[in-house]
Write a structure and sequence with these properties.
The protein has 354 residues and is α/β, with parallel strands linked by helices. The protein has 10 helices and 12 strands. It folds into 2 domains: 93 residues; 238 residues, Metallo-beta-lactamase, Chain A, CATH 3.60.15.10. Helix content is 31%, strand content 17%. The chain has a 6-stranded mixed beta sheet with strand order 5-4-3-2-1-12. The protein has a 6-stranded mixed beta sheet with strand order 6-7-8-9-10-11, with no helix packed on it. A hairpin with a 4-residue loop joins strand 2 and strand 3. Helix 1 runs parallel beside helix 3 and helix 3 packs antiparallel against helix 4. The longest helix has 22 residues. The radius of gyration is 20 Å and the shape is globular.
Amino acid sequence: MRNLIILFCLSSLLSCSSNTSTTDSTRHSISTDAPANFFGKPDEYLNWQAEQMLNLTELALSEHPPQLQEPIERQMAMLMLDAVFHDVSAPHHRSVQAFHHRRALSVLDELENSEFSTGIQVWKLYNMGVIARTKSVAIAFDVTRGYSSRAESFALPDDVIRKIAEHCDVLFISHFHQDHADEAVATIFLEQGKTVVATPDTWENRAIHHKITHLEAKAHEVQKLAIPHKDIELELMVYPGHQGADIPNNVVLAITPEQYSICHTGDQSSQSDFSWIDEVKDHVNVDILIPNCWTTNPLRTSEGYNPGLIIPSHENELGHTIDHREAYALNYSRWNVPYDKIIMTWGESFHYLP
């Protein structure tokens, strides 16, 4: 019943926003290709319902892309995604799998066809997968195929990752957890001659380990990373973050040749890390901060980095239990901080101009 109410509300909102009748709006969004009933087929019905909700959501997201001042239609769309993704069986629904694949292909299409001369374009993939591109360089963080969802058909095929990697110059892996570190993705980047940077414990007993770059984590210290195939360098600060008490987690702050900066925190969550988080703003200007949405003390985190823009991430990791899938809707309370923020889902992008 809850999902049907949300479905009705968003359908009505989209109808009003496009100045068409409800009948005309739903005709193009809710499929008429369905049986008269689903008697004895509850799983088929739930998949059909999810498909209709995702269709309406994609329509809403296309009409109301990421923006600082969100209209109610966009907030309703994000809430609808939460409703679909918080079904225990979500990653096994064909509709959710197809949605994930479509959204990744949307990113690929934009990577192949978008051009700009200033600012930072940020694309969001599954979980904490992010690509940030300026005129000179494209940086990938924690990109995976999605096998952490525990549904093989949900994961992206290697050929899609291969095409995405062709448009990236470097891959940073924050820590050695399956929803952030994907050996097949790292291998694809390396095969293309791209640098992969990770913590020393990432695949330490695998043949790939010696091919990966391991930078020492030092708070506030600038390091240089060559991008050989472009003959440029990135300036980096690799902060010694931790997930919980003892899991090493690189917090990478990358500064592009244009002097734009983007910081991706991975799963940093240790209270002890505030010893350096509190001082980041005193050492470097942060244009974009991409934190995990459930990190410790969002307000103090925001004040430490003092970013121009916050893009929370790690929502709806479908391999997690329902109580830790982390709804998009919770970002509105958790990240109710006096800093600009953009809430995005898979496949979306935002062009940031400092």
